[in-house]
C-alpha cells in the first residue's frame, strides 16, 4: 500500500492545481489541505519553512516535506515510500 500523501496549497495556486492533477491522473490517494482555510495548516507550512509561508508543500508518509516538487521528484518520493 502506497504511503499517504498530503498536499498543502491554495485553490487559486497554479502549482497546487498541477500537483493535484499529478495525483489524480495517477489515481493516487492524497489529502488536500487549503492553507487559506485552516490556521493549523498555515502554521504547519510555516513550521516546514522556518516561519515563511511557502506552498505548495507535499508530505509523503513520514518523509521530508517537499516544496513545490516536480513530477520527477514526486515519482522518486513515491517509489521510495511505496
Automatic annotation (TrEMBL):
Protein name, entry field: Glutaredoxin domain-containing protein
InterPro entries xref list: Glutaredoxin, Thioredoxin-like_sf
Family matches, as Pfam families: Glutaredoxin
UniProt-annotated stretches for the region Disordered: 61-82
Domain of life: Bacteria
Biased amino acid composition, Acidic residues: 72-82
Residue span(s) of domain Glutaredoxin: 7-62
